[in-house]
């Protein structure tokens, strides 16, 4: 009977280990450095002095494409005044294509060339600053000017272990790593949340950054916010892939062991009762 009990314990442990999957590598924002202030259900991240979680304001660079609309609340003719004939032909085109066809490229010297207004220096400005600069220029021609300025080239490529890899366009001035991953349908079960690669091209070099999105401290990482043209690559988790490969036969074995264990346990209980 003792040997039988030992066998039962051994089989039970095997079943338990085989059926349990650690979730440590699947959870985001783990409280690695979170502090709680008398609120057990609230985790508060304490930033070191000089750090902030505010999104950076993107500065316009050469080759950026800007969607710009200029019109006047007092002059109905202003819309055609500040649009080229080519743009007027594209006004009926909607969506990403329409915005691209109605946009202006920042040249290598940092200027955009607008109808009627001419060249305007926008390099190094935020979208709001560029918007105000264009408005001041347009007000030299008419009153009641309203300017809308949006990024068209804030495109992020997401590849690897995500549910919908592809190229995604964002129109807000700040895009973080989770914006990109959620646009791509989040990581698959096999995605390595510990090593999210960000490939960034600069004028002189290509840089690869690595983020661990399991940790809440990712919020403080300087690369938490992306830049136009970044590539986000999610590596496969080798351990998860390996376990998945052996999972189907292992599941069959553990199910059989569970059934055998249950039958033996019932027999032992009946014998003990006798």
Task: Kindly describe this structure.
Helix content is 33%, strand content 23%. It is of the alpha+beta class. Helix 1 packs antiparallel against helix 7.
Give a brief description.
This protein is of the alpha+beta class and 274 residues long.
Rg over alpha carbons:
29 Å
- What series of H and E elements makes up the topology? HEEEHHHEEEHEEEHEEEH
Averaged pLDDT: 77
Q: Estimate the helix proportion, in percent.
A: 25-40%
Keywords:
274 residues, alpha+beta, 5-stranded mixed sheet, 3-stranded antiparallel sheet, 12 strands, 33% helix, 23% strand, elongated
How would the blueprint of this fold be written?
Layout: H1 2-19, E1 34-35, E2 44-45, E3 65-72, H2 78-81, H3 85-90, H4 95-101, E4 103-105, E5 111-114, E6 118-121, H5 127-138, E7 145-151, E8 155-160, E9 166-169, H6 177-183, E10 191-201, E11 206-211, E12 231-236, H7 238-273
Parallel strand pairs: 8-12
Antiparallel strand pairs: 1-2, 3-4, 3-7, 5-6, 8-9, 10-11, 10-12
